[in-house]
Amino acid sequence: MSETINQSELEARAARLVDEARKAGADACDAVAVTGVSLSVDVRDGKVEETDRAEGDDVTLRVFVGKRTASVSANVLDDPKALAERAVAMAKVTPEDPFSSLADPALLLKKFPELEMLDPTVMEPGALAELAMEAEEAGLSVSGVSKSGGAGASWRRSGVVLVTSHGFSGAYMSSRHGLSMTAVAGEGTGMERDYDYDYRMFQEDMEDPADIGRRAGERAVRRLNPQKISTRTANVLYESRAARSLLGHFAGAVNGSSIARKTSFLREKMGQRIFAPSIQIVDDPFKPRGAATRPFDGEGTGGPVLNMIENGMLQHWFLDGATGRELGLEPNGRANRGSSGTSPGSTNLTMQPGEKSPEEMMKELGEGLFVTDLIGHGVNGVTGDYSRGAAGFWFENGEPVQAVSEITIAGNLTDMFARLVPASDLDARYSVAVPSMLIEGLAIAGE
Question: One Pfam family name from the record (predicted)?
């Protein structure tokens, strides 16, 4: 494979599978063909440690025989007929699923939006190594940094094709660039490490490598000599990096699969206010150069931009065709494709920023906890109970005064969402994009 991806070849491969599945007895079917090439370079102490290049082709065929369905995946399509026959044979012996089928033909996209998703820039190992070394050098230059934890740069180009037996055929290509650096500060048992990174669709949007390395070094130094704090109730300000997990918990709770299974603490909250009236949360599959931008979903439909939270009120679930049918609702183009079929999920999910910077919030609060890292997965999706290990900084008079670690933050997400206040520092680079977030009066378990 070269860096140039032949979309017509991918489409022909998927169409051949669909044709063979119909001949084998499938009532309906679809095929996804994915191809990609990626390159990554890792450096440490100014030397290249590893260069990795990967190329891959994958195809997944999903067939329907009555209300029964099965999926088969392969890396090499040597025998489309045999793959199709195997999928149909599997479907005939699986339990019936009354909600599984192809998308409603009326919802299929006929015309695709023009989206800027493919960077023509092709990265070579030498160029990636230079970027990583520049980031590492900047991190090591920070006073207090004792060693490098390594730096890495990466590039990927991929192509996706979806073909269905009821008339849909679509394809798109996308690119990804990444750069990260990890710095270590201190010595012996007192060492602390931290990192910084950037991840973009276009190389020209990437941050300066020196800035990434410098921030990694500064973050590591700030973590030195952490202390425990006593158990208390305090105001907690989540740094944007840590706050993304809060929006992730929201996304999981409004996923149609969780609603259908009755495993979401928000399943009775549609149309109700769950955030403050100022909170707006938008899911946009067409966000320019967004990390999860796509012209169509995993079923060939094109979901609209969704105002998930408008004026603090819950407006939508994330729905694919199956969960929409199970819940008696219209699907909204949020199908993500996996090896066994589709499942609903978000695209570019963004909490809109507030009016005050984190620094202004800290000054107004006087004292509290500024969380930079979270540990563990202590969230009960059914009840909303929340308990996460955390590290960060205790601030007084609006200024950080002490690194803290080995503490636990606890609460309930229903109550936390109701009291959440976004800062103004929206980090819009990632598929879950948030500013820093303040939640007053959370329980902190320490010494």
Answer: PmbA_TldD_3rd
Kindly state whether residue 167 falls inside one of the protein's structural domains.
Answer: yes
Q: For residue 152, give Cα distances in angstroms to 102, 206, 209, 241, 431.
A: 41, 14, 11, 19, 21
pLDDT in tens, 38-50: 999 999 999 999 9
Q: Which residue has the tokens 């033909």?
A: 105
For residue range 203-253, list pLDDT tens digits in order.
999 999 999 999 999 999 999 999 999 999 999 999 999 999 999 999 999
Q: Could you give the CA distance from residue 225 to residue 190 in angstroms, rounded to a whole number?
A: 7
Task: For 91, list phi and psi in degrees, rounded to 5.
Answer: -60, -35
Which of 263, 287, 310, 440 minimizes the C-alpha distance to 365? Answer: 440
Q: Which two tokens stand for residue 400?
A: 């950080």
CA distance 321 to 323: 6
Look up residue 360 and give its two tokens. 């202004």
Per-residue confidence (pLDDT) for residue 1, from 0 to 100: 40
Residue 268 CB partners (closer than 8 Å, separation 6+)? none
CATH classification of the domain holding 91: 3.30.2290.10
Host H or E run for residue 406: strand 399-412
Return the H-helix or E-strand segment holding 418. helix 413-418
Burial of 262 (0-12, 13-18, 19+ CB in 10 A): exposed
Residue 46, classed as helix, strand or coil, is: coil
